[in-house]
Recover the amino acids of this structure.
């Protein structure tokens, strides 16, 4: 019996192919049931996202199981198996564990550290559970994978640091202001990106929100969408004097906020910082306002630069996460190899215990006058003999499985003691 | 007894400083935990040393300037541990502990000469003078650390190139608040401490500033802090300007203590 994972992801397969193979839930259910009925594998979980399609399974011959399941998948999606075969990867046992842990921990994601993948893996697992294709091996494996993913998230900063421009702006705001609760925001212009950034700020508790636009009706609509207040365009300078964060995203060809305007209003603010998020291209705020005391002005390129730095920071954290995952894999492999030999140990013990009990009973039936002491002594004697005999083979089985040779030893023990076919 | 406790405390402070700086670079949670533990151990040893000193000399461990600076360190570390825990500024140790280490070179290592309390050094007012000045200086050490962090973080934000400090330091507003609070806390202590010192000097020696280097420099430092506080309260100074003043004020304070420790004068060397 071997654990395997086979599949394709954003690195091996082009998006066109991934699109074609991404499976909806009911189709996935169908596929799992079919595979189960055909006896392709003992256990099966399929993880399907827009960036990967992966089959986790336990089978006697993983290569056959893999071929069978992908043949069915291709048939279902109307894809030529010949196009899929070259982009497939397969990992067995320890490598499969390593791969699965990395996927769940978001180390194998296109954007390392993104948080959705864990939920997607959990969905795949839950679906397989509802189809009853999850057995003890995959159950232990996925439970552990989720635990490792959580550990990675809490012990490293892999999920910290915004990787989108609008979130990077929010993070910057939080490095200027201690908290965003009660910080007022002025939105100038009605660009989509501006609205998105404003929304993120509102989610962090920013309040109140003001909206300024050359077209009054658009200002009004946007204000309603953000639960804010619309202001006439000529009140821009007045509004600037009172707010904490300004988001600009107008389509104006010239800057709408001049250095002089900002300089003039800063005097009355008594040192309250003013943060400009200028998402417009061409820019809406004169770049030199950044040189004024307590004014911070980030245009779209600056924000992208911050995002790049954040990505580098995440990559550093990812390295720490990788070594954490490796340690966890080693731990899990030791556990897994114990799992491999435990059924054999149990049946060996049962077999000898069965012999012992029946032989003791036979002997006692020939000794009807035996005192309770004699009976107890016979029980103790036989138990001791059985335990002594079992000690060496059990130790050997455990050792061999840790060394990776568990399978040949369990087979040998089954043969020697006539334990029947291994389950 | 007190000497060995102090020596061990210095060793522990050196370890804590190294770990705190390592945390700034490495950002491993375990490093921070070790740094905190080392700091607490050092502080505990330091406490032990101060108690032993007080028992051996039968007076508060503030009899010489070196002992007072040792006390400053003790207060600073206590407050640093508290701020770190309650404000969640985990990198504070990296900024405070190096200062602690510099201050401890002459003082914790060699807080000797505890027999030299002259006949003029008597009376409760002197102890009050020393205790108040000690608390004031401790607050200004944290004031300086906060200002330094503010300057670094502001530079990162203005420069738009996020580096190590951007990720590790808290928000500008938090840091500005920290420098303001420590200034507002330290200033009254320093002021009353200095007034008491001056009054007492006038009474004991008949004049206030007869060539005592520490007295003169401390007046300079006090003036700088007074100007900063006035600027903050009246003119709305804050942020970078206030931070620069905090740095200058602390420099004056360091010169003051240096003068007291190394130049001959009434505060003795």
């Amino acid at each position: 019996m071997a654990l395997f994972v086979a599949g394709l992801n954003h690195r091996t397969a082009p998006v066109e192919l991934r699109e074609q193979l991404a499976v909806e839930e009911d189709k996935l259910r169908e596929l799992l049931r079919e595979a189960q009925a055909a006896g392709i594998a003992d256990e099966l979980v399929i993880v399907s996202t827009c960036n990967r399609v992966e089959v986790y399974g336990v089978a006697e011959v993983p290569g056959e199981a893999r071929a069978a399941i992908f043949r069915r998948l291709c048939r279902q999606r109307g894809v030529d198996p010949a196009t899929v075969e070259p982009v497939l990867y397969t990992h067995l046992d320890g490598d499969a564990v390593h791969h699965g842990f990395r996927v769940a921990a978001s180390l194998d994601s296109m954007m390392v550290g993104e948080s959705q993948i864990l939920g997607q893996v959990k969905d795949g697992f839950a679906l397989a559970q509802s189809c009853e294709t999850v057995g003890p091996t995959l159950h232990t494996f996925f439970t552990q994978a989720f635990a490792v993913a959580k550990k990675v998230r809490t012990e490293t900063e892999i999920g910290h640091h915004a990787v989108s421009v609008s979130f990077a702006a929010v993070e910057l705001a939080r490095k200027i202001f201690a908290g965003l609760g009660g910080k007022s925001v002025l939105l100038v212009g009605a660009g989509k990106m501006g609205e998105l950034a404003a929304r993120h700020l509102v989610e962090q508790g920013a309040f109140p929100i003001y909206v300024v636009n050359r077209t009054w009706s658009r200002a009004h609509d946007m204000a309603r969408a953000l639960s804010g207040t619309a202001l006439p365009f000529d009140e821009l300078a007045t509004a600037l004097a009172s707010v904490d964060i300004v988001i600009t995203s107008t389509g104006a060809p010239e800057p709408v906020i001049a250095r002089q305007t900002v300089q003039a209003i800063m005097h009355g603010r008594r040192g309250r910082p003013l943060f400009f998020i200028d998402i417009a291209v061409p820019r809406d705020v004169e770049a030199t306002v950044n040189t004024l005391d307590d004014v911070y002005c980030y245009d779209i390129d600056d924000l992208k630069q911050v995002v790049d730095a954040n990505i580098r920071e995440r990559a550093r954290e990812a390295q720490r996460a990788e070594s954490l995952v490796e340690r966890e894999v080693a731990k899990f492999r030791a556990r897994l190899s114990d799992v491999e030999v435990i059924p054999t140990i149990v049946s060996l013990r049962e077999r000898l215990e069965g012999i012992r009990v029946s032989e003791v009973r036979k002997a006692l039936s020939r000794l009807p006058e035996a005192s309770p002491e004699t009976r107890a002594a016979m029980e103790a004697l036989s138990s001791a003999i059985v335990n002594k005999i079992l000690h060496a083979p059990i130790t050997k089985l455990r050792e061999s499985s840790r060394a990776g040779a568990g399978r040949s030893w369990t087979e040998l023990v089954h043969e020697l003691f006539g334990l029947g076919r291994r389950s | 007894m007190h000497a060995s406790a102090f020596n061990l405390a210095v060793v522990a402070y050196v370890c804590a400083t190294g770990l705190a700086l390592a945390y700034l670079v490495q950002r491993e949670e375990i490093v921070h935990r070790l740094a905190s533990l080392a700091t607490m151990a050092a502080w505990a040893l330091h406490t032990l040393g101060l108690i032993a000193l007080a028992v051996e000399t039968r007076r508060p461990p503030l009899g010489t300037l070196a002992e007072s600076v040792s006390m400053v360190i003790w207060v600073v570390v206590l407050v640093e541990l508290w701020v770190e825990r309650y404000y969640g500024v985990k990198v504070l140790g990296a900024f405070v502990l190096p200062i602690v280490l510099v201050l401890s070179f002459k003082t914790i290592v060699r807080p000797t000469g505890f027999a030299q309390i002259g006949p003029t050094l008597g009376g409760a007012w002197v102890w009050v003078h020393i205790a108040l000045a000690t608390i004031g200086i401790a607050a200004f050490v944290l004031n300086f650390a906060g200002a330094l962090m503010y300057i670094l973080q502001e530079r990162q934000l203005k420069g738009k190139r996020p580096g190590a400090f951007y990720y590790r330091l808290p928000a500008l507003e938090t840091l500005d608040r920290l420098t303001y609070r420590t200034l507002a806390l330290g200033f009254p202590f320093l002021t009353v401490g200095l007034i008491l010192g001056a009054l007492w000097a006038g009474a004991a020696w008949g004049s206030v500033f007869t060539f005592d280097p520490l007295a003169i420099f401390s007046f300079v430092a006090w003036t700088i802090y007074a100007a900063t506080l006035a600027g903050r309260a009246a003119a709305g100074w804050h942020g970078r300007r206030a931070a620069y003043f905090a740095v200058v004020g602390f420099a004056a304070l360091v010169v003051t203590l240096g003068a007291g420790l190394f130049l001959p004068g009434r505060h003795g060397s």
Summary: The longest helix of chain B spans residues 124-159. Residues 111-119 of chain B have pLDDT under 50 and may be disordered. Chain B has nine helices and no strands.
